[in-house]
Amino acid sequence: MNFQKIFGKPPETEASAPGRVNLLGEHTDYNDGFVLPTAIPQRTTVQLGSSTDGHHHFYSEDLDERVSVLESNHTPSGFASYIFGCIQLLQKQGYTIPSLNLHVKSTVPIGSGLSSSAALEVATLRAVRQLLNLPINDVEIAQLAQQAEIQYAGVQCGIMDQMASSLADTEHMLFLDTRSLERRVIPFPSGAEIVVIDSGVPRTLAGSGYNQRRGECEEAARLLGVKALRDITDSSATEVLPEPLRRRARHVITENNRVLEVLQIVETFHETSLQRFGELMNASHASLRDDYEVSVPALDTLVGMLQKTAGVFGARLTGAGFGGACVALVAAGEGRGIASNVLEQYNQTGNTGRILVPATDF
Ligand code: GLA
After folding, report:
1. Cα(157)–Cα(117) distance, rounded to whole angstroms?
2. Which range has the worst mean pLDDT, 62-66, 136-140, 208-212, 324-328?
3. pLDDT in tens, 338-351
4. Is the C-beta atom of 149 inside 6 A of ligand 1?
5. Which domains are assigned to the chain?
6. Across all residues in the chain, what is the average pLDDT?
């Protein structure tokens, strides 16, 4: 149902934000490291108006769920927790936020590792900024969105997803140093495009596994005497660590080096650098599977099929892992054909995958 039907009057403003897919640099952001995401075409749109009964009312069109916030000290659950978190954080910054009617509609798939929650947070903050003319820039939006996720949705995430949703677009890759927030917007190479396929495996262990990996990295950094694993560039330094910390740290260090290598070759994109970019994506998947242990058999199957397909430079799982989607870098113009062929093969293995990019269903 649209805004008018739910709230009885038209919205006063509207804003949207995209989901993201990470091309390289996985599980590096909470280690102060480097990431390389890009936006996907799927977006979340938030429409806003003021509510007259003194309460916030949030409606998700996709879930057909309405949540009213009757007490401001009680965090709602589900999609409303992200919105509520954003509003609370703005208030803590000193802004006066009126009671709101808020309508959400999204094409970003939920639970595929493509940052539907970051898209919701960033779209919410953009809409409130617009409605109230708040002096907040896009980096501050990303920082508030990350805090909403940590403090109100309980996920100890890094800042990649929110920075990507706030600053990236589909024509560029966003290189980000997550420590300094220094970034470079790099045009997508003309000889390539991306394919994103959802494995159909829900990310059931993502929450607990994610926080556990994060803890292991902090422990490894402490034992190595550095502020964060980002401060180490030579993976042989990990040899003194006990298992599994040694492999966890090795993933982070080698992954950071892979992102930096892509950044170096990025200026001179031609056929050979796309090959190398692809090799680094393949190496990233192997490292996530063997050292970081966040893959699952279905993702390995799907990635393996992509990697063997002609026209594919490289493929890997994307996002936190434990299920969700894979991303592949493929020759320009071949994405749709490659995605359909691989999906057909993959679905014959008893899984139910889904092509997310190139996007077809909207
Ligand atoms: C999730 C988190 C990000 C990042 C990735 C893994 O998407 O929200 O901050 O840590 O996992 O790279």
Report:
1. 11
2. 208-212
3. 999 999 999 999 99
4. no
5. 3-184 (3.30.230.10), 188-357 (3.30.70.890)
6. 95
Residues in the chain, how many? 362
Q: Are 290 and 313 in contact (CB under 8 A)?
A: no
Element (H, E) at 203: none
How far is Cα 290 from Cα 22, in angstroms, rounded to an integer? 19
**Amino acid (1-letter code) at residue 252:** V
The verdict on the CB of residue 29 being under 6 Å from ligand 1 is yes
Atom number of ligand 1 nearest to Cα 26: 12
The pTM is what? Answer: 0.96
Rounded CA separation 350/330 (Å)? 25
- Name residue, tokens 């929110």: 162
d(CA 108, CA 165): 11
Measured CA to CA, the distance from residue 190 to residue 211 in angstroms comes to 37
Nearest alpha-carbon partner for 163 in 324, 30, 342, 344: 30
For residue 157 and ligand 1, the question of a CB distance below 6 A is answered with: yes
201-221 tens-digit pLDDT: 988 756 678 989 999 999 999
Ligand 1 atom at minimum distance from 320 CA: 11
138 Cα–ligand 1 center, Å = 19
